[in-house]
Amino acid sequence: MLYRVIDAAELPSLVSAFMETYEVVAPVKRDQGYAFETIESPDDIELAYPTTMASPKKYFLPPEETLMSFDARTNSVTDFAAEITPRVIFGAHACDINAVNRLDLVFKDGRYPDPYYVARRNATLIVGISCMPSETCFCHLWGSDEARFGYDLFLQDIGGKYLVSISSVEAANILEAACNPRVATDEDRIEFRHATRRRQEAFNDAIPDIQDVAMLMDAFHKDPFWEELGGRCLSCTACSAVCPTCFCFDIQDTFDPSGEAGRRERVWDACTAPQFAQVAGGHNFRGDGRNRVRHRMYHKLNGFLANHDRMLCVGCGRCVKACKANINPIEVLEFFERKGMQDAQ
Ligand code: SF4
Ligand code: SF4
């Protein structure tokens, strides 16, 4: 890893240099909060932002996309060539970079890479930015408060300047051409350490740190807690829509009015939707809220860990704000903390 320091005043030049070759997507302020959007000018960016309402996952896995078209008259199938836009996601927090790393495990690095995802991922540079946690952030519990890989540049604010971690030649060349990066001094490294400590100390310590939550979920799989938690679910699927690591999708064939030709579409789906586990004949493997919500929490805090050695949840806190029924991983952690206190009495 290469480290350099740039002045904060140089940031607009860096953004402008990216804009010459790439579409730049960055956090901007909207009425309801902050959102990742394509910017027209470096002035549009709000880098001191709390977590955005939705994550940048749509730039890798769009809510809807065509996978292929077919024509029954000629009995032919045409692979759909997705239009790939060279893009920079500028100003991603560490949790969102770690979320993309998890999507990579599923769609890029597995035995069957997804060509649509891979094409977008390979055409995207990621520039990360350091952040301060809000009260719903718990990324530090899962080690997602730092991005160790998965970005091209990472900018750590050290007061009027940025310590830049560089991990790709492409981004390094643009940084070199647009700014005057200098070698980091010992003073810069000390400021970096202070900034890291300030962030670590700012996390909401009312959120329980239950590192063995996966094991506890197995032990309390049939606890009435899941009935109570799932019984509140409205099946609105807002949690999955905002989550940076929810990746379930449905495949739908859409026919032209003639009924002879059409397209195969991939659309986001959510395991909290009632029909998600419904199969032919009408049987539903997860027909009630208890089973659906428990399944979602298991995928986030248990199953992915067993397969990939890390939580699927990165602790971004988006679902904490999005769910009107107050169903989120913090509720699960608090349940196990209460359980632990009961057992200790
Ligand atoms: S858990 Fe909350 S956000 Fe998710 S579907 Fe249920 S009510 Fe909606
Ligand atoms: S489950 Fe909630 S807190 Fe965890 S990554 Fe998804 S939206 Fe963020």
Automatic annotation (TrEMBL):
<keyword id="KW-0411">Iron-sulfur</keyword>
<feature type="domain" description="4Fe-4S ferredoxin-type">
    <location>
        <begin position="304"/>
        <end position="333"/>
    </location>
</feature>
<dbReference type="InterPro" id="IPR017896">
    <property type="entry name" value="4Fe4S_Fe-S-bd"/>
</dbReference>
<dbReference type="Pfam" id="PF17179">
    <property type="entry name" value="Fer4_22"/>
</dbReference>
<protein>
    <submittedName>
        <fullName>4Fe-4S ferredoxin</fullName>
    </submittedName>
</protein>
<dbReference type="GO" id="GO:0046872">
    <property type="term" value="F:metal ion binding"/>
</dbReference>
<keyword id="KW-0479">Metal-binding</keyword>
<dbReference type="GO" id="GO:0051536">
    <property type="term" value="F:iron-sulfur cluster binding"/>
</dbReference>
<feature type="domain" description="4Fe-4S ferredoxin-type">
    <location>
        <begin position="222"/>
        <end position="254"/>
    </location>
</feature>
<dbReference type="InterPro" id="IPR017900">
    <property type="entry name" value="4Fe4S_Fe_S_CS"/>
</dbReference>
<keyword id="KW-0408">Iron</keyword>
